[in-house]
Specification:
The chain has about 250 residues and is of the alpha/beta class. The protein contains six helices and nine strands. Helix content is about 45%, strand content about 15%. Strand 1, helix 3 and strand 2 form a beta-alpha-beta unit. This is Flavodoxin-like domain-containing protein.
Amino acid sequence: MSENTQDILIKEAAAAAAVSGSLFSTFDIIMLVVLFGAAVWWLYSSRKDNKKDDLLLSKYSIQPAATIEVTENSFITKLQSSGRSLVVFYGSQTGTGEEFAGRLAKEGIRYKLKGMVADPEECDMEELAKLKDIKNSLAVFCMATYGEGDPTDNAMEFFEWLKNGDPDLTGVNYAVFGLGNKTYEHYNAVAIYLDKRLEELGATRVYELGMGDDDANIEDDFITWKDKFWPSVCEKFNIESTGGRRVNKTI
């Protein structure tokens, strides 16, 4: 190969290399521009989304607990809002006390006393003193004795409050029916204590303490008690029976 030919090949290779280098540099620049544009778009989108989140958070933010009035455990509020005046509390371990409470609450409507059933564990029992503010109001307690003369689990806190506290229950009308078993030493101890303690705190007994014996026939004991309990309630609130229906007595 001649020197001229070699020179020509070297020049062509150099020219090709120069062209290739120029094309590569332009491609790099284009890629940088594209990447930069993508970065700017991503930053803009992120800020926009963050603004949306901030708006939603400000709209649906959770209020501090101190500013929220919790009334779920207020049985007084429930009575007033529903136009009821009879509340039947139950202390039950096996369900019988709760069943009796439900039956009494339902029967109340026949005597112009709309009723509700309440679990003392789920109520603020300190509100019991406010019951007198509701016209013709009445609290009935269907309380079982459990174990060695103890209240049931759901009534434990209520009894601790009665024992250790000194609330003024003047003007509160009440009645108690106990669920016990005579084969046990502490027969109806819970109901006996509750009936006595409520009177000590100033409450008014509308009918004598009822004591059911699960060793015999507690159902019969309950029916016998409530059949005498309701006439006593009618007398207390000036309600009389006419033709099997109970109506308000006119004075």
